[in-house]
Amino acid sequence: METNCGECGGTIKIPKDAVVGEIVSCPDCGLEYEISKISGGKVELKPAETVGEDWGE
Amino acid sequence: MRWEEKALAQEAKKKGARVVTIDAKILTLDSTSEPKQIRKEFGDVALERCISYFRGLHVTAYLEAKGLTVINPHEVGETCGNKYLTTLALEKAGIPTPRTLFAFTAESAKEAAAKVGYPAVLKPVVGSWGRGVAPLKDRESANTIIELRDEMDGAMNQIYYIQEMVKRPPRDIRTIVVGDKVIAAAYRYSPPEEWRTNVARGGKTAPCPITKELEEIVLKSAKAVGGGVLGVDAMESPEGLVVHEVNNTVEFKGASQVSEVNIPAAIIGYVLELAKR
Asked: Looking at the domain assignment, is residue B77 inside a domain?
């Protein structure tokens, strides 16, 4: 699966075992996206959240 | 969703459980919802794995109020996600833990640092991955770092947690506790040009034997915070092991690489046991 970066148009490859909620980044511009939907071999992305001060384990 | 959550979901499916992954970011919760309806949506038991501490804590409180079993319980999350509360719980249970001074203004924080002695460590009360953990090497750098903290927004930044710097080798120990067992342990070595050992900062793991001493202190620590699925971190001080942290939504990718135990499978086994009750 592949999709295009909304910012620079670069090609983002989506791993086969990708799941909704996973973070992918554009290899060209580095922008990070969260996978918001996967259906019928198509994937939808939304901009990933930036790291919050309460993030972690 | 991290590597850990994917591994957990896969293991649960392998064990034949019905798995629903719920994203707290798109969730709206209604105070008036019927517990029966919530159970239908969330299942018999919820494994809280939010990357945001406060989000996870509040979702847990809601689910518990609606009668669900959540791992870990709200009280455990509250204690572990806040280093101040963790230290108090460990100290109260008589577990060796680094001496820590607490202060609530920059002025008194400077005094606290001088009192604990240099080098000391200033840690954010809430936070992870070693972020904002600063060594206070001498009076000058301590005062500057504390002044910078004073200028930061956020009420939690005015809670100063200043800890003695433990004389340890360039590694600490991450253990994974599931219920009443220590299922895995790993040394975490700090990467070059770095003193923090967090895997998120590039720390490397190596196998660590679960000695009697380690097992005892780790299980006692897990019990002190309320138990469940936990990451208990210990350091080797000249006086013996000290526990400095207990993690509520433990990351175990690093430990998995050097452990023979299938960590996500063990966690899911525990979750399914609780679901049966």
From this structure: no
Q: What is the pLDDT at residue B16?
A: 94
Q: Nearest residue on chain A to B48, judged by CA atoms?
A: A57
Chain B positions touching A56 (Cβ under 8 A) are 51, 53, 127-129, 131, 200
pTM for this one? 0.92
Task: Confirm or reject contact between B3 and chain A (CB < 8 A).
Answer: no
Q: Which carries the bigger pLDDT value, residue B216 or residue A1? A: B216
pLDDT tens per residue, chain A (57 residues)? 899 999 899 999 999 889 898 999 999 999 999 999 999 889 999 999 888 889 999
CA nearest to B196, candidates B245, B160, B231: B245
CB–CB of A49 and B251 under 8 A? no
User: What CATH number is attached to the domain comprising B222?
Assistant: 3.30.470.20
Query: Does position B277 have pLDDT exceeding 80, yes or no?
Result: no
CATH number for B108: 3.30.1490.20
Residue identified by tokens 């990718």 is: B253
Count of domains for chain A = 1
Residues of chain A contacting residue B127, judged by C-beta atoms under 8 Å apart: 53-54, 56
Contact between B109 and B146 under an 8 Å Cβ cutoff? The reply is yes
The domain that contains A42 carries what CATH number?
A: 2.20.28
Look at B21 and A17 and tell me if their CB atoms are within 8 Å.
no
Residue B236 C-beta-side C-alpha neighbours within 13 Å: 14
Count how many domains chain B has: 2
Which chain B residue has the Cα nearest residue A23? B1
Q: Examine the domain organization and report whether B139 and B174 are in the same domain.
A: no
Does some domain include residue B44?
no
In a domain, A57, yes or no: no
Range of the domain at B207: 167-261
DSSP code of residue B36 = H
- Cα B64 to its chain centre, rounded Å, is 20
Q: Do A35 and A43 touch, CB atoms closer than 8 A?
A: yes
Q: Is residue B10 part of a domain?
A: no
Give B-chain residues touching A53 at CB under 8 angstroms. Answer: 124, 126-127, 131-132, 154, 156
